[in-house]
Amino acid sequence: MIARSLEAKALEMASKFPIVSITGPRQSGKSTLVKAAFPSYRYVNLEDEDMRAFAVDDPRSFLQMYPAGTIIDEAQRAPSLFSYLQGAVDSTDRPGQYIISGSQNFLLLESISQSLAGRVAILNLLPLSHDELDRAGMPPKTLNSWMYAGGYPRIYAHAIDPADFYPSYIQTYLERDVRQTLGVQKLAEFERFLTLCASRTGGMLNKEGLSRDCSVTVKTIEHWLSVLEASFIALRLQPYYRNFGKRLVKAPKLYLCDTGLACNLLGVEHADELATSPLRGALFETAVVSEIQKAALSRGRQLKLYYWRDAGKQEADLVIEKGSQPWRIIEIKSSATYHPKFFANITGLGELMGIPAQRRYVVYAGDRSFETSRGAVITPRDIASTLEYS
């Protein structure tokens, strides 16, 4: 098993809250993590039809059979169970009574907000980070091979070729999550939409263009984007909202959360293809945004993450806000060779926002991190340690 950075936070929260919830995309390693972190707990998976029927039809008996000290996997499959869980944990108010996990963030959070608000610590587990692979003694051979493979644990645990893993993953996702759980019926159109999102990762979101290309309404596109976000397949990065006397672009940027999935959707068949691909820059930016998210989520933090672009086309790839103030500013470059001009945009914007040089960063595709008078230059493998969000 590859050790997950989130485990320490899960154990900490189980010592403070009656219930700990861990959500994330399908096959991100949630079940493996909770079983490893809580080895003395009983385990039940509500993907099993018999167990799900038991939990739905007779929740009292289900909780008698699975009392405190139980992991309930895919808990969102039985939303009616949550009100009974409330009564069970409130009777003693002891921490660490239940660990619940699921691959549908929206449905799980909806059930929690209705019945378990204030009783649950909510954590998110994304696929493996570069840092986790390094600590497991499995560092990617090259940057391109890392982007091509993505981060889903099964690829590394069982040495599966990404070209074999992702088509099955996509079909499982479409059938079990998109159709059965979230009720999307136009699967062919949705699959085309997913591929178009991959081709536009790292770019400005144009819902009208997606609507035309998929032959569905803009309202449907908005619903489908929510589906991707709810299942941790994509995220929207909003523009930084503070004016600073500038006219700012208002459209969000769209990212897939895993570059391996994006590469497969785009028809990339080998890591070496990325060396000359016109999408390499966008995929590298996608990988970096994902790494920064993983670094924060593994510590139980939700990032206030934005991008900046004004009407004069001055831009910064990432602005991280802390409290109500801009905290760190980041430029992402897919070049393996550092040039001082990489700091050009974020130097002026950093001064405008009051972000000092020690909190300005360039993430590049080189193999050495170092400090400059303008800010830090870091590699993807150093994101977790350098950009800690605490």
TrEMBL record:
<dbReference type="Pfam" id="PF13635">
    <property type="entry name" value="DUF4143"/>
</dbReference>
<feature type="domain" description="DUF4143">
    <location>
        <begin position="175"/>
        <end position="335"/>
    </location>
</feature>
<protein>
    <submittedName>
        <fullName>AAA family ATPase</fullName>
    </submittedName>
</protein>
<dbReference type="InterPro" id="IPR025420">
    <property type="entry name" value="DUF4143"/>
</dbReference>
<feature type="domain" description="AAA">
    <location>
        <begin position="17"/>
        <end position="133"/>
    </location>
</feature>
<dbReference type="InterPro" id="IPR027417">
    <property type="entry name" value="P-loop_NTPase"/>
</dbReference>
<dbReference type="Pfam" id="PF13173">
    <property type="entry name" value="AAA_14"/>
</dbReference>
<dbReference type="InterPro" id="IPR041682">
    <property type="entry name" value="AAA_14"/>
</dbReference>
